[in-house]
Amino acid sequence: ACAGMAWLETQRGRLPEAQGWAPRARERDPVQSPGVRAFANPLLLAAQEQPGETARHAAGTLVRSGILRALRSSPGDPELESLLARCAVIDPGQDAEAAYPHAVRAADALPGRPDVLLDLLSISAMTGRDQEAARLFAMHFRDPRNEHHALALRGLLAGDVRAANAMLAKGDVAGAEARMVAARERVAGEPGLLNDAEGFLAQIREGRAAQRQSQATVARENAAIAEYNAAVQHLNAQHFAEAAAGFRRAAAASGRARFRRDALALALRMDLRVRGQRAVELANAGRVAEALAMFRAMDRASMNAEDGRWYDRTVAQVKRMRAR
């Protein structure tokens, strides 16, 4: 019953109330897997829509705790294994390496499930398992007509950014540039992802030129690139408020006009997504007219293709709420 109340509150868009009911569903042993499954995924998805990391971390920690206890009474439950992996995807503060075996077991037990395969691909990319991530993409998501194609590409791009950052930390600027050149070619068919890859590649190349400047200048620009890369990671995880703040910090830290212009442009794009999340929250709370007014205030004509598709899809979702 408590698990059902947690699920119901997520459907009402009331995340704090859901997070209050969920712990009560796991107070006594044995914790049953059906109860945990009832609230786990809705709670994670609801937390993912929140603008700050706090809610996602709280939901990830809460769900992970419930799943681990439920696995004692239902060892090997594939749905629980899948949800445990998803905790690490939604809450990057968790240990992605520890989540990898759970993602593998879920994919083996639930063959062909796109959500399970996407989680495995994302975790493989996050943990440096490049060949595994590439294999999953080639087998399941390569076709541009696949509805999950862009999401899978975003997962691969996150792995490329992670690897390039590791190379930059070791001083291997040429290796980081080569990695991002390959990443740019892979996402060439997705304008939004292509812009992200080209922006990161441009920063790497400009950073390479900056190495010839004074030590202080190099340190400053590398700090700006690190902020930019961290913001890209937030963008890939759909943490738009953190991404906007990161791009603005990157612009403020850099002395290069192009870098500042590109970073601020991305920050404005992220602001749109934050406003969209807020509008969806209003719609979930029953304030559909206010949500639609927020969308009408946005300049649809100035959006790029990716943002335009997001706008149309989200407005349609909100209008369906009004129809109900």
Please name the defining characteristics of this protein.
324 residues, mainly alpha, 16 helices, 78% helix, 0% strand, globular
Please tell me about this protein's structure:
The chain has 324 residues and is an all-alpha fold. Helix content is 78%, strand content 0%. The chain is built from 16 helices and no strands. It has helices at residues 2-11, 15-21, 33-48, 53-73, 78-90, 96-109, 114-126, 130-140, 149-169, 173-186, 191-210, 215-236, 240-253, 257-284, 288-296, 305-323. α1 (2-11) runs parallel beside α3 (33-48) and α10 (173-186) packs antiparallel against α11 (191-210).
Report Rg.
Answer: 21 Å
Which series of helices and strands comes N to C? Answer: HHHHHHHHHHHHHHHH
Oligomer: single chain
Q: Provide mean pLDDT, rounded.
A: 85
The total beta strand count reads 0
Low-confidence stretches: none
Reported for the largest beta sheet, the result is: none
Strand content: under 5%
Q: Distance between termini?
A: 26 Å
Structural class: mainly alpha
How many alpha or pi helices?
Answer: 16
What percent of the residues sit in helical stretches (DSSP H or I)?
Answer: over 70%
CA-based shape: globular
What's the gist of this structure?
The chain is an all-alpha fold and 324 residues long. It is built from 16 helices and no strands.
Would you spell out the secondary-structure blueprint of this structure?
Elements: H1 2-11, H2 15-21, H3 33-48, H4 53-73, H5 78-90, H6 96-109, H7 114-126, H8 130-140, H9 149-169, H10 173-186, H11 191-210, H12 215-236, H13 240-253, H14 257-284, H15 288-296, H16 305-323
